[in-house]
Amino acid sequence: MSTGNRLKDVVIRFSGDSGDGMQLTGTLFSETSALAGNAISTFPDYPAEIRAPQGTVAGVSGFQVHFGSTAVTNPGDKCDVLVAMNPAALKANARFLKEDATVIIDADSITADNLKKAAFETEDPISELNLSGRNIILARISTMTREALSSSPLDNKSKIKCKNMFALGICLYITERPTEHAHDYIEAKFGKKNPDVAQANNIVIEAGYNYAANNHLIHNAYAVEPTGLKKGKYRTINGNVATAWGFIAASEKSSRPLFCGSYPITPATVILEELAKHKSLGVKTVQAEDEIAGICTAIGAAYAGNLAVTTTSGPGLSLKSEALGLAVMAELPLVVVDVQRGGPSTGLPTKTEQSDLMQALYGRNGECPVPVIAASTPSDCFKYAFEAARVAMEHMTPVILLTDGFIANSSEAWMIPNMADMPTINPPIAKEADGDFMPYLRDERHVRSWAFPGTAGLEHRIGGLEKHSQTGNISYDPANHAVMVAQRAAKVACVADDIPLQEIDGDKSGELLVVGWGGTRGHLASTVSQLREEGYSVSHCHLNYINPLPKNLETIFGSFKKIVVCELNEGQAASYLQGIFPQFKFNRCNKVEGQPFTVAELLNSLKNYLK
Amino acid sequence: MADYKYTPESFKSDQQVKWCAGCGDHAVLNSVQRALPEVADALDKPHEKFVFVSGIGCSSRFIYYMRTFGFHTIHGRAAAVATGIKVANPDLSVWVCTGDGDSLAIGGNHFIHALRRNIDLNIILFNNEIYGLTKGQYSPTTKLGTVTKTSPYGTVEHPFNPGELAIGAKGTFFARTVDAEVMLTKELLKEAALHKGTSVVEALVNCMIFNNKTHASFAADKATRAKNTITLRHGEKMLFGENNEKGLVLEGLKLKVVTIGEDGYTIDDILTHDAHCQDTTLHGMLAAMKFPEYPVALGVIRSVDEPCIYDNEVEKQVEAVKATAKIHTMDDLLNSGETWEIK
Q1: Residues A297 and A198 grouped into a single domain
Q2: How far apart are CA A385 and CA A400, in angstroms?
Q3: Whole-prediction pTM value?
Q4: Could you read off the pLDDT of B37-72 as tens digits, one per residue?
Q5: Which of A540, B292, B322, B330 has the lowest tally of Cβ within 10 angstroms?
């Protein structure tokens, strides 16, 4: 490696104790890379415990950033650079190292005590982990941080807290990045509140940068040219914030105020937190007493004429299922967001999985169809949250939006949309009348009208009991029940006329069709494009509209010799598709480890179908 | 005050009322339909601004009999749905019809949190101390030892007293009535509607079929009620009895029933009801009074002004933030913070 070398893409992983500030370090580094014109994709990997025992492997918090000069679709399987603030971080992340990776370790942290906490058997963690082929930099980060701050008025404990900024400084140097953005951030965050802390952090960033510059062991070997992204204005965004913003955009485009009733749950909470900020856009949030109250307040707000959403993860979706049935029966627009995590039960709260698909499709009593839409990248959470809200309001139905812990927490560079380019949403709002309003009269799409309380002449009664197909009065008539079940199903089926046809990446026919849905898009896209570069006949079909499915799927499936469905569960989409299209065989490629796919393991699995 | 010229008839729907003959719910329906024309005038809200929300159970069928907006939701969740309606549109007058099982068992959480938030809902709690619609199982208000279908040897759990629960949760309005007192109920409902914040009106209703006469010892007829209940009115002495000859005094930390003219007690010793007192101690004691040791308290037991009303506060915050914020459109938000241009 030498100065001046320009790489196509680089992966850096920051790791340390969950109190070491690695998420912030990673975020600042990513933003700096994005500002320098790189495509980025990031992924935080942290434990559920807020502060697991210090120094243990269980307490290690990681943040991976992948930046490149061409499209970057995922945070990368393995890293070129690992920053490890203690032996436990080194141990937890050794398996993510590339063969020629650089490892930057805080040498001060390699103490007998820390080695014991991380369950090392010898005093040489490098050999014990077989890292001798890697470029190991033992930097005395803690000591140098303290020395840099010798004249700072901060106490010793506060000084040492700045060591993450030392690591940031090193990484900024080796990637030829300016330190301005990091300084701006520190100024904005601490400048007024605590100038001593701001000054200390700023000093340490420079100290880390200079250490790297003066140290001949580290060359600026990880520089990446700006990307060839499309011209335009960009920002970084993660999936949860993009989801929240998609709803606010839908609120603006439908002129319906936005209401969110939710209960905090990992990894969905950020959506509620984000929405709670935007009162200036008329957003109302209720932090409910439980998951059930979350959806029930949202149902109440929908009844009263708001764009209503409730946000949760798998366990919360279980709790919401009865109320979701009420929304189906009352035919009210509502979006339920499920940011999927490892299950069942409490499962793996901070880890990702796609195992709630069946629950989303079928997890309710009775014949209870609900449109299901899945977002597939951090930034397209915006688009699909908007779409979920559009379908809900224009078709008067609850909609489930599936995202997952991976895309919710990952961020990427995103070309900022222009609201003038987004479609207007037109809900079927009932106008004032002279009375005798029929709440369940439908249009040609089987959609009833939305009658807000407070509108003169629209007084009517609805609820969870089966209703007469026009008046909405309670009806136990057997024939009427059959009619209503059919109407509700037909209404959801009709959504298929109102969603785009499925597109595929690659040739329209061939040997193998790789089918994915939701948050696996980035890894599958990289894998398929790599296979195509290697000369294989492979195409990629990635589903966002799960129920109803796009109308051209049968034609697509029929154009390939083999189909394999890749998903982070035991085959839920595969069996769903198998039920709808019994004429095709849906092979399965599954992973349930709480982690995203890696491109390497996908390449390995998919080549089995291409021999 | 507006004059909409509504009559009780204006609030009757075309649906046939299907409660059992003799069910106490009929009387409460009657009281509500009598109260609403006056409430509409007093609040200056036309007909279409009234929404009735219910859960599940006999009393939750209430909403079908009202010619207002009505939402018959799911078991226990009426208060949560009503909270969403009120926050979305604070201009509506939102009423919750719920039973003892609906609001205190499956919906207990939503009940106490509505009170904690002090959101402007009017909750009518129909307490018949039994599960009626599922045909006779004990409820969280069924008296200890009662034999029901699920307690063939008698219950072994203490009941809740809804008043104690509401006041314990720092509820700002609690009143109690009995089904037969149609005019008292009407009066209490009107007060509840005018109260800002969560109001709870507990209606002691009789279930002829599964728990007949559960309230009869003190509520069977007018004479019994005169003897065994006390109707509290703010600013008035706490007197009861056929000739108002009895009253309540405070002795140590306990209430005591005394007869005026006996044991040296005079009218001056009798407590004066202060429904507006912020402190919950005496209100809690009054709500907890059980027959036969005490008369059962009816009327407005607690009605206090509390400026923090959830739906108001939500609106105020939205307006305050709008007034100072820099972000007023989605485009503003999209372009806020750190952005960069690729040329």
Answers
A1: no
A2: 10
A3: 0.94
A4: 999 999 999 999 999 999 999 999 999 999 999 999
A5: B292
